[in-house]
Amino acid sequence: MNKKYTAEPYRIKMVEPIFETTKEERIELLKNAGYNPFSLASKNVYIDLLTDSGTGSMSQEQWGHMMTADEAYAGSKSFYKLEGVVKNITGYKYFIPAHQGRGAEQIVLPQLVTKKGMYFISNIHFDTTRAHVELAGARAIDCVIDECFNIELDHPFKGNFDLVRLEELILEKGSENIGGIIMTITNNSAGGQPVSFANMKAVKEISHKYGITLLIDGARYAENAFFIKEREEGFKDLSILEISRKTFDLADIFLMSAKKDGLVNMGGIIAIKDDELLYKKCQTYIVPYEGFPTYGGLSGRDMEALAQGLMEALDMRYLRHRVDQIRFLGDMLKEAGVPIQYPIGGHAVFVDCGKMAPHIAYDQFPALSVVNELYLEAGIRGVEIGSLLLGRDPDTHKNLKSPIEFMRLTIPRRLYTYSHLEIVGQAVIEVYKRRNELKGYVFEYESPMLRHFTSTFKPNIKETK
After folding, report:
1. Which residue in 123, 239, 377, 411 has its CB near the most CB atoms, within 10 A?
2. 173 is catalytic
């Protein structure tokens, strides 16, 4: 390594063996999976970078607290412990647990859709958020700055809202037709890019001006706070907790897939600042969809692990190593000429497969092609974040074209070492060398919703733009 990267701030106490398959085996395994990496059995994956959602390692403290959990159906002491931690971090009055982020979205978003023809505006909606917006009868509009789409531009906060466009959209659609503004931090589909505090504050001012609810989709809020501390003037002397509190103070609702910056394998959060009526509506809905309001689909053990994990994720030593692991892999690829989103984000390296394989049309999914080739090369599983994930227009049913066709190489928390990531980098570089040989994919079966999860494909014989 020709740059300094932070060493792991932990010692390894337990290990899980992983195994390699042969190239011949992987060819057959991928074919049997319908050329969809989601359908591969994990035992046949050597290094799994599909997602950082619930795939990390928990600490000895988390495992220890699980042994003291209260599994009472109602009023569990583990709930009250978790509630205290969430309120301490957010400063919000109300808290309801959910089994994961999409469970939280399922409960809250329909409460904000009061009539037909409504919209939600986000810097970029992620897949399940977009799906739940549409299931609630509304439409999702993305409103990120143009700098996001210039992958070579060194901009510190590419996840920011386009503030001019945001206000134009509100005036165009009518403020009464906006169910909410959703601030996604960090901005996953933008390449794991952070959002500045100044931008969030400006969004707050716009939402307040027009009387629109502001939500934070904060699966990676601690990573976002780290980048604010590192890159934004006036924050270097503040702690991650202090920056997070200032961030949450801007919004009305906080939704979280706690499987990311909660450092757990399962969990979600609904936190509401002070809207008692909304809280009571969500409290009613949580019972049939998730569970009783004091467990919301989680066991006492889950809540104990989450209460501890939320605090561990605020530690600067952990966050610096976390970001350095991503930077290590990103620097390796960038130095080899592989086109990646830059600056490197907080949870993954995003490879621009549209630039890597421009001969593959967007509706033949160039990023899926690169993802599959990476698995064939070295048994490494990444994920497509492009036109396949974006899906179809809910009204016209035409394939939507993503501005960038990303392959996301998502690093689970506290799971892999720099040596693992070096192997990943070498494999991506080998695929890059033969990028002109890659072929696109077409559907054999297309799932009607969130199609990237369960659809099946076949290689396309002809590649035409």
Report:
1. 123
2. no
- With cut-offs at 50, 70 and 90, classify the pLDDT of residue 448: confident
Based on the residue annotation, tell me whether 347 is a catalytic residue of this protein.
no
Tokens of 436: 């002109």
Residues 203-221: pLDDT tens digits?
999 999 999 999 999 999 9
**Mean pLDDT of all residues in 7-32:** 95
Written as six digits, the tokens of 340 are: 């990646």
CA geometry: angle 24, 29, 35, nearest 5 deg: 115
CATH 3.40.640.10 maps onto the chain at 60-312
Helix, strand, coil shares of the chain, percent, nearest 5, are 45, 15, 40
The predicted model gives 89-97 an average pLDDT of: 98
Q: Which of 127, 142, 162, 352 is catalytic?
A: 127
For the question of residue 274 being annotated catalytic, the response is no
Q: Check: CB of residue 185 under 8 Å from CB of residue 195.
A: yes
Q: What is the pTM (predicted TM-score) of this model?
A: 0.93
452 as an active site residue: the answer is: yes
- 235-238 long-range contacts, Cβ below 8 Å, gap at least 24? 235/197
User: Which residue carries 């000895």 as its tokens?
Assistant: 60
Tell me which CATH code domain 23-52+316-459 carries: 3.90.1150.10
Amino acid identity, position 290: E
Q: From the candidates 98, 104, 138, 219, which is the catalytic residue? A: 219
Q: Which amino acid is at 78?
A: S
C-alpha span between 125 and 143 (Å, rounded): 9
Mean pLDDT in residue range 121-126: 94
* Mean predicted lDDT score pLDDT of the chain: 95
DSSP structure class, residue 460: -
From 125, 132, 158, 260, active-site residue: 260
CATH number for the domain formed by residue range(s) 60-312: 3.40.640.10
**How much of the chain exceeds pLDDT 90, in percent?**
93
At residue 462, the pLDDT reads 66
The full DSSP string for 83-111 is HHHHHHHH--SEEEEESSHHHHHHHHHHH
Structure tokens at 262: 């909660």
Intervals of CATH 3.90.1150.10 along the chain = 23-52+316-459
